[in-house]
């Protein structure tokens, strides 16, 4: 049986409030047989779930495509609900049943539809304490039964919305962080069930957030504006068919709230004695409230929510209560996490409780906060009195494993404290496990590094006074990120901000959104995120539109580079981070020993190569020829400047070798010399890395691709400094910024730049999935339409397994070595195909569970071909689950 499953529009299940005028539909196939391929599809769109009246019908379309099908010719209307369904025919022309009806609803498609007004607290309202967050409330009438009700809302700063005393939605840190001067997201909520016929009240909290609050390490505030504001529009559709629009305006009222201070870095101070209980309910006395003030502000920059919103995705219970040698009371959450602590107290009115969040205990086992720099990460709660009170923050988040409790009386009950984990609510897609417990912990740490740093933007750390969207970190980690979670909407939104903040000359700021100085832009390997990230999204999700949307940004970056060097084909000018934190750096330097111009030109060549490929995908023939020629010219210039003068020895550093090999910049004898040089350098270091941010993501992959898989494993499995496993032997539960963030004696690398949750070096996850387990996509089959399963047993491992929920369905590769036999389970989703490479196998010795006695492997159902290639058996497969087995030959 074949059936349609997981229909999606723009990666989402039944999304509310889209403003994409040409939405795309994707689906998966479920099949209980092997080798299922789609031959044709039909899509229908209707105004009701019963499809009694069809609004749009593709008819039968002869195509095997099941991802990102554009609904061309469908005229979309604001706020309209569209129901859709799909059926397909397989390669035998067998039709499926129609899928169950799915739907999407449009948001507001033009600025003119926003009739509500931006409202803010009068300056006099907050004059006594400008940091106090305001409350806003607006009353309105619903005078007859409703069919549906939608709220469209955004803010300058962060907002939390209530309706008739009940919180609206389950998301946090809205409206998210974008390039606020150019792009501001709004959210859409279905509030039909929260309204009543009669009196109703909407209430809102406002916080500083990224818009108005402290950003960066230079104590800058008000980067985008100095006043928080709300824009809210409620659309009512009555059962009699009439409609009504209610919007924020001067009729709303404002009062300073109990949130005395709210900052992303510093935490919150909340005085429960000032709580305005019931302020968002009818009947509340607001006679002392002031009239809201209208704030003139743009509406043409508004766009519907693009990425997955931030949610509370998990809760953790404390694992221990610690009394430090200094007498401090500390909770241990057992996991370096990002979010906040929800807690309950029972104190007299005015009793103050304080929670200081931090990552590690110091050498003596006491509270350590120096690596937070100026970020206070402190929540202060002042009790209202009158019984047990519970609290959790609204407009801040902390990066922490430990929490110091100040003002909490003994005895403490751990059940009064809960860690709430926050991050962008991306769909989990990848799993990895193996027979080595330390590698399993490494996978755990990589995942938690992604959780903690994907909080609406890809931050570099979640705890100190930074938390910025560094471009280099993002491009280094994006491939690993795409294994672990569906990051397509997340990066599509962030890349939109990159394009918005890109300079007119094509230069790319160091961080996106851009909040650093005017000179903080265009470092090699950092600005290349403009090209590498869209290409990676396309490759991992088959999303051609991301290339179309980002093309001018990608091209702008490449042309910026072309204009920089003293030679058109070398990038030998400018200020670059180089191989940041490379261990071969000179004393008192953060920059590794690899020549910065070498790195810049290597990435120049790589970005030009990706531009050529992108132009080819988009059918831009002239640009294909242009960038093909430029790539050859840059590659030749690179070799003349850096490779040939090196003679027989090869490049001077591990990173130099890695980049030349990874980007295909050396060939023939030059490539052989470079591989030999890399092995020589590894041997000299006792098989320890000396690479920094630039070289580390590719190091193991380059070794494996050059035929040195065991060297890659040896590097991966080191447990002493510097290595991926060294932090794990010192209790790490996330990836560290520095290999020796905590030294052997318990002291710290530094206080000024020492995050214990910094995902960049987690890019080794790519190697775990791609090489150890063997799941590898191909450029010819983007989105895993066609892919490889080519595991590489080694390193003493006896098993490894990975799964990936691709856009087509679940891919799985699981190998085991037991009693002299290798077993491999390969799962290929319907409507895809895969090539499986069985290592160290002989064709005549390979069996598969579907084989009959004496049957050749290539005649097994679902297997299209089988052949011997040197020490590898190559098998091409259609969809299904396959179980191969053969004797271990070495």
From TrEMBL:
Keywords from the named record:
Glycosidase, Hydrolase
According to UniProt, the reaction catalysed is: Hydrolysis of terminal non-reducing alpha-L-rhamnose residues in alpha-L-rhamnosides
Q: Domain Alpha-L-rhamnosidase concanavalin-like spans what residues? A: 323-423
**GO molecular function: any one?**
alpha-L-rhamnosidase activity
Please report the stretch or stretches of sequence annotated as the Alpha-L-rhamnosidase six-hairpin glycosidase domain. 429-772
* Cross-referenced Gene3D superfamilies: 1.50.10.10, Galactose-binding domain-like (2.60.120.260), Immunoglobulins (2.60.40.10), Maltose phosphorylase, domain 3 (2.60.420.10)
Q: Where is the Bacterial alpha-L-rhamnosidase N-terminal domain?
A: 146-313
Query: Keyword Metal-binding: yes or no?
Result: no
* Signal peptide boundaries: none
**In this protein, which residues make up the domain named Alpha-L-rhamnosidase C-terminal?**
774-845
- Please give the SUPFAM superfamilies that the UniProt record associates with this protein: Six-hairpin glycosidases
> Which is an annotated Pfam family here?
Bac_rhamnosid
Q: What is this enzyme's EC?
A: 3.2.1.40
Indicate what this protein is called per its UniProt record.
alpha-L-rhamnosidase
Q: What is the lineage of its organism?
A: Bacteria, Bacillati, Bacillota, Bacilli, Bacillales
């Amino acid at each position: 049986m074949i059936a349609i499953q997981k229909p999606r529009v723009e990666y989402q299940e039944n999304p509310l409030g889209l403003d994409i005028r040409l939405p795309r539909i994707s689906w998966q196939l479920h099949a209980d047989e092997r080798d299922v391929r789609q031959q044709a599809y039909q899509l229908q769109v209707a105004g009701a779930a019963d499809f009694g009246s069809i609004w749009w019908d593709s008819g039968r379309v002869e195509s095997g495509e099941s991802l990102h099908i554009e609904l061309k010719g469908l005229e979309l209307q604001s706020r309209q609900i569209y129901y859709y369904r799909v059926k397909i025919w397989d390669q035998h022309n067998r039709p499926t049943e129609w899928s169950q009806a799915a739907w999407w609803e449009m948001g507001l498609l033009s600025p003119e539809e926003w009739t509500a007004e931006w409202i803010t607290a009068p300056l006099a309202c907050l004059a006594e304490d400008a940091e106090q967050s305001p409350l806003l409330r607006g009353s309105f009438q619903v005078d007859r039964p409703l069919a549906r009700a939608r709220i469209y809302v955004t803010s300058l700063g962060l907002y939390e919305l209530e309706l008739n005393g009940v919180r609206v939605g389950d998301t946090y840190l809205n409206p998210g962080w974008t390039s606020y001067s150019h792009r501001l997201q709004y959210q859409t909520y279905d509030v039909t069930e929260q309204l009543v016929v009669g009196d109703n009240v909407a209430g809102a909290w406002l916080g500083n957030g990224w818009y108005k609050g402290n950003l960066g390490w230079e104590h800058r505030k008000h980067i985008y504006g100095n006043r928080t504001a709300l824009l809210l529009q409620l659309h009512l559709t009555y059962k009699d068919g009439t409609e009504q629009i209610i919007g924020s305006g001067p009729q709303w009222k404002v009062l300073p709230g109990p949130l005395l201070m709210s900052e992303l870095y510093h935490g919150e101070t909340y005085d429960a004695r000032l709580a305005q209980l019931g302020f968002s309910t009818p009947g509340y006395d607001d006679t002392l409230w002031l009239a809201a003030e209208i704030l003139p502000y743009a509406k043409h920059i508004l766009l519907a929510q693009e990425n997955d919103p931030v949610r509370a995705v998990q809760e953790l219970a404390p694992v221990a209560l610690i009394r430090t040698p200094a007498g401090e009371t500390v909770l241990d959450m057992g996991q370096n996490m990002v979010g906040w602590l929800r807690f309950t107290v029972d104190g007299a009115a005015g009793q103050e409780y304080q929670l200081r969040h931090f990552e590690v205990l110091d050498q003596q086992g006491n509270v350590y906060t120096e690596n937070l720099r100026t970020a206070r990460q402190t929540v202060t709660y002042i009790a209202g009195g009158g019984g047990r009170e519970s609290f959790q923050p609204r407009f801040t988040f902390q990066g922490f494993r430990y929490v110091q409790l100040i003002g909490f009386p003994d005895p403490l009950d751990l059940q009064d404290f809960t860690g709430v984990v926050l991050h962008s609510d991306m769909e989990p897609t990848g799993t990895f496990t193996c027979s080595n417990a330390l590698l399993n912990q490494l996978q755990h740490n990589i995942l938690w590094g992604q959780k903690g740093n994907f909080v609406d933007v890809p931050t570099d750390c979640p705890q100190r006074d930074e938390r910025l969207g560094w471009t280099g970190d993002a491009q280094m980690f994006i491939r690993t990120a795409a294994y672990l979670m569906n990051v397509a909407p997340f990066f599509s939104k962030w890349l939109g901000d990159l394009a918005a903040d890109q300079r007119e000359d094509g230069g790319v700021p160091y961080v996106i959104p851009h909040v650093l100085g005017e000179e903080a832009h265009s470092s090699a390997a950092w600005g290349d995120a403009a090209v590498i990230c869209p290409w990676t999204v396309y490759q991992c999700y088959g999303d051609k539109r991301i290339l179309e949307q980002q093309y001018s940004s990608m091209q702008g970056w490449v042309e910026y580079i072309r204009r920089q060097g003293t030679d058109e084909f070398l990038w030998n000018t400018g200020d670059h981070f180089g191989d940041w934190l490379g261990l071969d750096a000179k004393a008192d330097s953060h920059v590794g020993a690899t020549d910065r111009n070498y790195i810049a030109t290597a990435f120049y060549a790589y970005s030009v190569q990706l531009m050529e490929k992108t132009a080819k995908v988009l059918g831009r023939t002239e640009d294909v020829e242009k960038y093909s020629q430029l790539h050859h010219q840059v590659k030749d210039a690179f070799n003349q400047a850096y490779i040939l003068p090196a003679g027989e020895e090869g490049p001077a550093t591990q990173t130099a070798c890695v980049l030349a090999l990874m980007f295909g910049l050396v060939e023939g004898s030059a490539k052989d010399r470079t591989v030999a040089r890399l092995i020589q350098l590894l041997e000299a270091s006792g098989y320890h890395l000396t690479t920094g941010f630039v070289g580390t993501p590719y190091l193991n992959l380059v070794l494996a691709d050059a035929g040195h898989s065991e060297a890659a494993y040896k590097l991966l499995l080191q447990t002493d400094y510097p290595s991926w496993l060294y932090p794990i032997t010192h209790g790490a539960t996330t990836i560290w910024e520095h290999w020796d963030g905590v030294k052997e004696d318990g002291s710290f690398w530094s206080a000024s730049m020492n995050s214990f949750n910094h995902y960049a070096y987690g890019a080794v996850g790519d190697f775990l999935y791609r090489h150890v387990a063997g799941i590898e996509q191909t450029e010819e089959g983007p989105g895993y339409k066609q892919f490889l399963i080519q595991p590489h047993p080694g390193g003493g491992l006896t098993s490894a397994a990975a799964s990936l929920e691709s856009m087509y369905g679940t891919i799985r590769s699981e190998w085991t070595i037991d009693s002299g036999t290798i077993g491999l389970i390969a799962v290929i989703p319907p409507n895809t195909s895969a090539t499986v490479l069985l290592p160290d196998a002989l064709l005549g010795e390979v069996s598969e569970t579907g084989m009959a006695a004496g049957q050749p492997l290539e005649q097994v159902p679902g297997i299209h071909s089988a052949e011997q290639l040197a020490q590898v058996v190559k098998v091409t497969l259609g969809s299904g689950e396959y179980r191969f087995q053969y004797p271990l030959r070495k």
